[in-house]
Amino acid sequence: MTRGEDTAALNIQVEIELEETAVCRDDDDLEEPSKMKTSITPFVLVFKNLTYSVNKFKAVTLPGMFCRKESMSSKTKLLLNDISGEAREGEILAILGPSGSGKTTLIDALAGRISKESLKGSVTMNGENVESAVLKRISAYTMQDDLLYPMLTVEETLMFSAEFRLPRTLSKPKKLARVQAVIDELGLRDAAKTIVGDEGQRGISGGERRRVSIGVDIIHDPILLFLDEPTSGLDSSCAFMVAKVLQRIARSGRIVVMAVHQPSSRVVGLFDKLIFLSHGETVYYGSPLNLSLFLSDFGRPIPENDESTEFMLDLYRGLEGVVGGRKSIVEFNKSWQEAQSLHPHSTNYPNDESGSLSLKDAISARISRRTLVDTDAADSSIGLAWTVSEFANPFWLDITMLVKRSSRISRRKPELLVNHIGASVALSSVLANLFWNLDKTEVGVQERIGFFAFLVTAIFFGSTDVLAVFIQERYIFMRETAYNAYRRSSYNIYRSIVVIPRLLLLAVLSSSISFWSIGLYGGFPGFLFYFLSIFLSLWAADSFVSLVSGLVTQVILGYILVLPIIGVFLLFSGFFIHRNRIPAYWIWFHYISVVKYPFQAMLLNEFDYPDLCLVEGVKDQNKSCLLTGLDIVRKQDVTDLSKWSCLWITLGLGIFYRVLFYLSLLFGSRNQRK
């Protein structure tokens, strides 16, 4: 079978449980293995001999003839060393260890977030290698931080996730039914209509927020669920509740793999298998029930009234400080597993009546079993015939949903728009008052030129608040695009569209207040061009600052980068030094300065009129015009382009920056280690 056919069949996973509206089971059901859902062929994730290292560079001082020389040498640090194990459908595999032990690295390795060139060993599912594109469709990864929009309710958060992850062919009522089922499954019914909230806006509790994060990732019913320390930062009661929810998710027919820092005994009791790591090596792998026997055989029996997990963590932390101590328990674990017949390499995959199913067929069988019989999906051959694209929705629908979500958030938090409007009105009013009704003199001409330069500068510096917008939601974007919720191109287009109403409003306010009160030339056609100049200045500024926000990860770094660049753009715009006075080796910067073009467009709109007389006087005993608009155009050396060309270039630069922003999203926001 070709790769395309394989991928097409596996895409059916997108509709797993889309029409299923079953609510969560009672807690008592979770503790009864006989009630656990299993597939016709249970899925088994097996990882063998996983090894991963990175190069650490350090400065090395080398002796020289007259002085000491410094060079860089690389030192390899082993993050994972020969890790093996398995995770089965219906079970929770918990990865334990202190900070720096390799828990998150192992999760990333299993989730395909480490490049195959760097990761040694194998990760297979039902004995078959899983391609990266396929893994994205059948898995979900819940990060340690709760990456959610605070102004959306729990139900809205899950509904938007459903809109992004579930196929457009599924009706709205069925998507809503899936959301309600997840709400019940996660025990969020009482909080469904409450906003998520954050530090500045009261919302749901920390434990509920963590469960919402899990719900966002399981809305499309993945086979594999990876979680990075889902109980961190929660009290013991909330941590147990989250672990209980994860057990319910596993028992519903999923593989759950999670990293845990230091769980309580109640939480450990919900796990099916444990892997203890120490500096990237396996200290223990097996059932929690066998941990006491393991420690007894190692010669360190658990004291009475001590909790086995805490004792184990304390034990090998102590051994890490003893020469050869860690190696002794690592080697003992290997021999003990072989003696207990727990070695993962001996995994046998169940067969159905017709023999062992391939991974593709196993997924098709799962869909046939779990989809309602009132559709053609009940036919087990659907896996061969049904095809969808890599993403659940076409790009235009991605854009529509992103705009809809942004609009809802903006309506509930209008402070940003109100502040923009207030700042624009205040600045325009001050400028209108300061430059009120400028006269037709040489001084008045210079004041007009200064006004245009300040206005364009204020627009660009005032747009730097855009930095925080994307940087704050960067990790939400990375989480959603990592598993193909929507395209990066869709996000870029959405960002370009959603700012237009705000920029239009600001341009209308600024131009209406300042044009007539200052007494600018051109009449109504001149006003319209002036309005377009301000709007496209705002557009280019927003696009440029968006590009910078895509290149940095911290707001302060963005300001450090963007403010000097705007200052240099202003320096070469032609206001401080005219084009014909700029040295030849700097002239290229004059033409890439995005500030040049709207500034020059405003100058031409004001002065480029053949019959415009600015200063009248007597010359040779005759009344004549001593200073015309064309004289100012030539004096300012803005004759290289027409005013409309300047506007088109400003628009083009804004689009160019948006394209670069998209490239920064494409190559700079990937969730994969090298």
TrEMBL record:
<dbReference type="Pfam" id="PF00005">
    <property type="entry name" value="ABC_tran"/>
</dbReference>
<dbReference type="InterPro" id="IPR017871">
    <property type="entry name" value="ABC_transporter-like_CS"/>
</dbReference>
<dbReference type="GO" id="GO:0005524">
    <property type="term" value="F:ATP binding"/>
</dbReference>
<dbReference type="InterPro" id="IPR050352">
    <property type="entry name" value="ABCG_transporters"/>
</dbReference>
<dbReference type="Pfam" id="PF01061">
    <property type="entry name" value="ABC2_membrane"/>
</dbReference>
<dbReference type="InterPro" id="IPR013525">
    <property type="entry name" value="ABC2_TM"/>
</dbReference>
<dbReference type="InterPro" id="IPR027417">
    <property type="entry name" value="P-loop_NTPase"/>
</dbReference>
<feature type="domain" description="ABC transporter">
    <location>
        <begin position="45"/>
        <end position="304"/>
    </location>
</feature>
<feature type="transmembrane region" description="Helical">
    <location>
        <begin position="448"/>
        <end position="471"/>
    </location>
</feature>
<keyword id="KW-0472">Membrane</keyword>
<dbReference type="InterPro" id="IPR003593">
    <property type="entry name" value="AAA+_ATPase"/>
</dbReference>
<feature type="transmembrane region" description="Helical">
    <location>
        <begin position="492"/>
        <end position="515"/>
    </location>
</feature>
<feature type="transmembrane region" description="Helical">
    <location>
        <begin position="416"/>
        <end position="436"/>
    </location>
</feature>
<keyword id="KW-0067">ATP-binding</keyword>
<keyword id="KW-1133">Transmembrane helix</keyword>
<dbReference type="InterPro" id="IPR003439">
    <property type="entry name" value="ABC_transporter-like_ATP-bd"/>
</dbReference>
<feature type="transmembrane region" description="Helical">
    <location>
        <begin position="527"/>
        <end position="548"/>
    </location>
</feature>
<dbReference type="GO" id="GO:0016887">
    <property type="term" value="F:ATP hydrolysis activity"/>
</dbReference>
<protein>
    <recommendedName>
        <fullName>ABC transporter domain-containing protein</fullName>
    </recommendedName>
</protein>
<dbReference type="GO" id="GO:0016020">
    <property type="term" value="C:membrane"/>
</dbReference>
<feature type="transmembrane region" description="Helical">
    <location>
        <begin position="647"/>
        <end position="668"/>
    </location>
</feature>
<keyword id="KW-0812">Transmembrane</keyword>
<feature type="transmembrane region" description="Helical">
    <location>
        <begin position="555"/>
        <end position="577"/>
    </location>
</feature>
<keyword id="KW-0813">Transport</keyword>
<keyword id="KW-0547">Nucleotide-binding</keyword>
<dbReference type="GO" id="GO:0140359">
    <property type="term" value="F:ABC-type transporter activity"/>
</dbReference>
